[in-house]
Amino acid sequence: MQAIKKVGLFYSVKLLSFFLGLYGCFVLHQLLEVPIVVSAASIGLMGSILPTTTQFQHHPQAAMYAGAFAGMCSSDVISSPYELVVISLIGAAIYTSLKNHFIGVGGKLGAIAFVSVASVVLCTMVIGKWVSG
């Protein structure tokens, strides 16, 4: 039971961090018209100065940066706030499940962001085709 609580807390922190990175980068670029690379770098910089604990180590900062990668997509891809939430849920779940895998392997955060956004886009397309007949 203790392990489930620990994983649940870890996931919750990752979900919040991923969502803040995703939403922050998306808003900076789409609403404030900050260049996309500057938006992601700004979110990454803000995430790097977050206080951390020994329990979570560097994971909240990394999840925020992965969220910033996901937030770099166009408003043509993300069309509703609900999609931001679903992308965050998927991204945090993938991050949590891969926590102890691919350590030291480059591209992990970008891959998590890509799979999160791509899965939401794919599901949206499939549901759209299914509903329209």
Provide tags for this entry.
133 residues; globular; 72% helix; 5 helices; mainly alpha
Task: Please describe what this structure looks like.
72% of the residues lie in helices and 0% in strands. It is built from five helices and no strands. The chain has helices at residues 2-30, 36-48, 59-70, 81-97, 108-132. The longest helix is centred in the N-terminal third of the chain and has 29 residues, at 2-30. The protein starts with a helix and ends with a helix. The model has no long low-confidence stretch (mean pLDDT 83).
Unreliable stretches covering 5 or more consecutive residues: none
Bulk shape = globular
Spatial gap, N to C terminus: 45 Å
Radius of gyration from the CA trace? Answer: 15 Å
Helix content: over 70%
Outline the biggest β-sheet. none
What percentage of amino acids are in beta strands?
under 5%
SS-derived structural category: mainly alpha
The residue-averaged pLDDT reads 83
Q: Total number of helical segments?
A: 5
Number of strands: 0
The SSE order reads HHHHH
List the helices and strands and how they pair.
Elements (H helix, E strand, L loop, with lengths): L1 H29 L5 H13 L10 H12 L10 H17 L10 H25 L1
Helix pairs in contact: 1-2, 1-3, 1-4, 2-3, 3-4, 3-5, 4-5
